[in-house]
Amino acid sequence: MYHIIVNSKRVKGENDENLVTVRQVFDRAGKQYELHFTEHHGHAREIAEELTKSGEKVRLIAMGGDGTLHEVLNGVTYPDRCKLGVIPVGSGNDFAAAVGIPEENIKYAAQIIAFRAPVFIDYIQLSSGLRSVNAVGCGMDVDVLKRAYAARLNGKSKYMYGFFMSFFGYKARRFAIEIDGGERKQFNGLLACLGNGKQIGGGIKLFPKARVDDGYMDFLIIDYLSRFKTFVAFAKLFFRKLDTIKEVTAVKCKKAVIYPSSDKFTIQAEGELYDMANRESVTAEIVSGKLRFYLPHSD
């Protein structure tokens, strides 16, 4: 049985064109499935928790965007007993893009799930209990998202708006970092972001060399830059040469700790925002060999 958890904000009822396509694929493949429509924010997580609490093996499909996938992953009680997939119909779909699942071809996205066996991928586990399959960060990425969500725009345009406004309005913040148990280093930084996937914000490729199955997180830290150098940095970002700037640290790691220097500290995971209390540090570790995911290829 495939349990398809449908974001009702992205899929307008059972006659929605994308959902009709998905049902046709599963029907023709002879697969049994059940549809679960969300009714409010956080409902996908509740549905996933209910479906997995018994510990039985289960197939969960998130039909939505990165936020829906994030909710489903965090609702899973036993990740090693779950096979997970995504049919991308969200506004960003960054994780789907990172692994080659096309948002413009819903039929193919459904066929990947109906006809392929899932393979192991990594995910990021936070000390707070949160899991992230794509990216976790703090700093300018959080500011971009806050501005994007406040804008009355749809689709990827809201992320571009948020990026433009944050570029001119965000100021560097102090934080400290430990990587794989090494020395704690201080930064007055613009960004500290951990990636399992390749991109965030609807297509900004912060981690072009990342792989979802290599057993590592890609950690990108951008220290303070002048306004001009910030412009140069983000120009280089689009040519995937951001790591050539000396104020940029780009490493692969298995564990990282972020120590904020302010009581007001917010992180983002798959575009979902979480406020951290009382200067609480965030420890992130990569988890391998537990979660199976439906991918278009396994190389």
Question: Which secondary structure elements does this structure contain, and how are they paired or packed?
Answer:
Elements: E1 2-6, H1 17-28, E2 33-37, H2 43-52, E3 58-64, H3 66-75, E4 82-88, H4 94-98, H5 106-115, E5 119-126, E6 131-132, E7 135-139, H6 140-150, H7 157-169, E8 173-179, E9 185-195, E10 217-223, H8 227-237, E11 248-253, E12 255-260, E13 265-269, E14 272-276, E15 282-293
Parallel strand pairs: 1-2, 1-3, 3-4, 4-15
Antiparallel strand pairs: 5-6, 5-15, 7-9, 7-13, 8-9, 8-12, 9-10, 10-11, 12-15, 13-14
Helix pairs in contact: 1-5, 2-3, 6-7
Number of helices: 8
Oligomer: single chain
* Mean pLDDT over the full residue set: 90
Assign a percent range to the helix content. 25-40%
Give me the count of strands.
Answer: 15
Q: Extract low-pLDDT stretches.
A: none
Element string (H = helix, E = strand): EHEHEHEHHEEEHHEEEHEEEEE
Explained architecture:
- The chain is α+β, with helices and mostly antiparallel strands.
- The protein has helices at 17-28, 43-52, 66-75, 94-98, 106-115, 140-150, 157-169, 227-237; strands at residues 2-6, 33-37, 58-64, 82-88, 119-126, 131-132, 135-139, 173-179, 185-195, 217-223, 248-253, 255-260, 265-269, 272-276, 282-293.
- It has a 15-stranded mixed β-sheet that branches.
- Helix 6 (140-150) packs across helix 7 (157-169).
